[in-house]
Design a protein that fits this description.
There is one protein chain. The longest helix is centred in the first third of the chain and has 23 residues, at 14-36. The protein has a seven-stranded mixed β-sheet, sandwiched between helices. The two termini are 28 Å apart. By secondary structure, the protein is of the alpha/beta class. The protein is globular, with a radius of gyration of 18 Å. It has a single domain (16-295), classed as Rossmann fold (3-Layer(aba) Sandwich). The chain has eleven helices and seven strands.
Length: 296
C-alpha cells in the first residue's frame, strides 16, 4: 500500500533503512507542525515558512513569495500554514476541466487555490503522507465548498514515492517545497512521469543547492524538515527529472524566498547560518526554484 513504510528485508539494501528513518523523521516533524504550528526546535509559534516557523505570519510570507492578498483571504481558515517556498499555481497555467495533483498537499493551501481554476469539470487531488496534515485538509473541504460552490477537491494518504493515483490520468502535477524532503527523489520523478498523461506538465516550487552543504548541517533534524538538508545540487535535480523521462525542463532559481527569511531573521535560517563557514550566508548555498517540465 502506498501509505505503508517498506519493511527491512534481506533483499533491501542498507540504504532502505536510511530512507525509512528520514521519512519517519519528516513525518513526525510535519505532524507536529500540523498540530502546533511549529517545530520544538523553533520557538516562534506565530510564523510559517518551509521550516515551520518564522517571525513573519503565514499570510505575510505567502505574499512575499507571490500569492495575492485576495487569494490568501479566500482560503479556508488554517489552510495556509506558511509552508511554501514559491507559488506553483502561478506558473501552472491551469485550465478548466484539468486533473491536477498536488504532491505533499499539507493543509490544502495550493489545492484550494487550484480548484476554482479547473472548475466544476476539473479535479484537484492532494496527496500527503502525514495523517495529521490530511485531517486538517479534509476538515477544510467544507469551508472551500461553501465559499466556492465547488466539490472538486480530495485528499489522499500516501507517499510521493508511491502515489495512490492511477497511471496517465493527471494533466498537471504541482508541488510546493516538498520534493526536496524525499529521501528517494528519482523515484518521486518516476512516479510523476507515471501519473502524467502524455503531454502532461509539472509546475512546482522547491529548494535546491548552489553548492554542497557542510556535513554538520545534514544531521540537523530542523534543517531536514525545513527543506534545507534534503535539498540537492541543481545538476542532480535536473538529472533525476531527465532519467524519469521528462523533457522541456526549466529550473529557475528564485532567491527571493531565502532573502525574505534572512531579512526577517528566521530562527532556523539563523541556526543554519551559524553552522556555515565564516563569511558565507544561507543564500550562498540554498535557493528556491520554479520548476517546469513536460511528459513527452
Amino acid at each position: 500500500m502506498a501509505c505503508c513504510q517498506p519493511q527491512p528485508s534481506p533483499t533491501n539494501p542498507p540504504h532502505s533503512n536510511i530512507i525509512i528513518d528520514v521519512r519517519e523523521t519528516i513525518r513526525q516533524g510535519y505532524a507536529q507542525i500540523a498540530q502546533t504550528g511549529l517545530l520544538t526546535s523553533v520557538t516562534n509559534p506565530q510564523g510559517g515558512g518551509c521550516c515551520g516557523a518564522t517571525p513573519l505570519s503565514a499570510a505575510a510570507l505567502a505574499q512575499q513569495i507571490g500569492y495575492s492578498a485576495e487569494q490568501i483571504a479566500a482560503l479556508p481558515e488554517g489552510a495556509n500554514m506558511g509552508l511554501s517556498c514559491g507559488n506553483p499555481t502561478a506558473i501552472a497555467q491551469l485550465q478548466p476541466g484539468q486533473v491536477v495533483l498536488d504532491l505533499g498537499s499539507g493543509g490544502g493551501f495550493d489545492v484550494f487555490l487550484a480548484g476554482p481554476k479547473v472548475g466544476p469539470t476539473g479535479r484537484v487531488i492532494g496527496v500527503d503522507m502525514t495523517p495529521e496534515m490530511l485531517s486538517k485538509a479534509r476538515h477544510n473541504v467544507a469551508g472551500y465548498t461553501q465559499s466556492t460552490g465547488l466539490s472538486n477537491v480530495e485528499f489522499r494518504l500516501g507517499e510521493i514515492e508511491h502515489l495512490p493515483v492511477a497511471d496517465a490520468i493527471v494533466d498537471v502535477v504541482i508541488s510546493n517545497c516538498v520534493i526536496n524532503l524525499s529521501p528517494d527523489k528519482l523515484q518521486v520523478w518516476r512516479e510523476i512521469a507515471r501519473v502524467l498523461k502524455p503531454g502532461g506538465r509539472v509546475a512546482a516550487s522547491d529548494m535546491a543547492l548552489l553548492r554542497p552543504l557542510p556535513a554538520n548541517l545534514l544531521t540537523m533534524v530542523a534543517a531536514l524538515v525545513g527543506c534545507v538538508a534534503g535539498a540537492v545540487m541543481l545538476e542532480e535535480y535536473r538529472a533525476a527529472m531527465t532519467t524519469a523521462g521528462l523533457t522541456n525542463i526549466v529550473l529557475k532559481p528564485k532567491p527571493e524566498y531565502i532573502a525574505v527569511l534572512a531579512s526577517f531573521k528566521d530562527p532556523l535560517y539563523a541556526q543554519i547560518a551559524a553552522a556555515l563557514p565564516a563569511g558565507s550566508t544561507v543564500a550562498d548555498y540554498v535557493t528556491s526554484l520554479d520548476i517546469t517540465a513536460t511528459k513527452a
